[in-house]
Design brief:
Elements lengths: L7 E6 L2 E6 L10 H14 L7 E6 L10 H9 L3 H16 L4 E6 L2 E3 L1 H7 L3 E5 L3 E3 L13 H8 L1 H10 L2 E2 L1 H6 L5 E3 L4 H13 L3 H15 L3 H17 L1 H11 L11
Parallel strand pairs: 2-3, 3-4, 4-6, 5-7, 6-9
Antiparallel strand pairs: 1-2, 7-8
Helix pairs in contact: 1-3, 5-6, 9-10
């Protein structure tokens, strides 16, 4: 049974899942419940190999306006910052290292914590007129919890600029900065997402999950340290049923069986 969440809308159309941030009345501001819901959702999806990609979007024409400032202010006043920090970090890790391909569909605002969610997505398709940024310094704060993912996504020099100025920028700038792979008019977002999902339909479910793990493993190890892992992984996949099917389909000039999954 597909789970339900207080702050998210989850729909499954295998081999894809659509997760919608669903607090439109507050522009999908990220409160503690949304953080917990996203964590639970991605934990539920983790072992589901029927799902190859997860599309993240926001209800009401806004991706995520950032953290719920009212809730954060109460937490700071009551010295409960730690109770907010640990769940948020856990959520970012779950999304970042999900075995599925995570695609952020971004329109409207994507600020603060919403920007952090973009930085832990594999691919980002953004509308030309989206408004993005890290405004924390203009609120007397810093983007402390999301900072490692921001720096990893856009590099130290660009992170300095955006974190220290707090300025906002549009979708085309996000593409230039390497935050988004593509920036398109808003009315073309769904069509571009659909095309990207068609590309992922051609990819082996197990190979996608293995490739996600490969990216994180080799980026954290020295070349000599990761050599055995890389060689073993290639051998395992080559001998696997999907590996055999993929190579046979190539030789026979036909589509692999997983491309026909509805």
């Amino acid at each position: 049974m597909t789970p339900t969440y207080e702050t998210l809308a989850l729909s499954l159309t295998p081999p894809f899942a659509h997760v919608t941030l669903n607090r439109p009345a507050v522009k999908n501001a990220m409160n503690t419940q949304m953080v917990l819901d996203l964590t639970a959702c991605f934990e539920w999806l983790h072992s589901n190999r029927d799902i190859r990609a997860v599309v993240l979007s926001g209800a009401g024409g806004t991706f995520c306006a950032g953290g719920d400032i009212k809730e954060m202010a109460l937490a700071f006043q009551s010295d409960q910052t730690d109770t907010f920090a640990a769940p948020l970090d856990t959520m970012l890790r779950r999304v970042n290292e999900a075995p599925q391909v995570v695609i952020a569909r971004v329109e409207g605002a994507a600020l603060g914590g919403g920007f952090g969610l973009i930085c832990v997505s594999d691919m980002v398709i953004v509308s030309d007129d989206a408004r993005m940024g890290l405004p924390e310094v203009r609120l007397g704060l810093v983007p402390a919890l999301i900072s490692p993912y921001v720096i990893q996504r856009i590099g130290f020099t660009r992170a300095r600029e955006l974190m220290l100025t707090g300025r906002r920028f549009d979708g085309q700038a996000a593409k230039t900065y390497g935050i988004a792979q593509e920036a398109v008019p808003t009315d073309q977002l769904d069509g571009r997402i659909a095309s990207l999902l068609d590309e992922l339909r051609q990819c082996s479910p197990n190979a996608l999950a293995a490739c996600k793990q490969l990216l994180f493993t080799v980026s954290r190890q020295a070349l000599d340290e990761s050599l055995d892992y890389r060689a073993r992984l290639l051998t395992e996949l080559r001998r696997s049923p999907e590996g055999q099917e993929g190579m046979l389909a190539f030789v026979e000039k036909r589509s692999a069986s997983w491309t026909r999954t509805s």
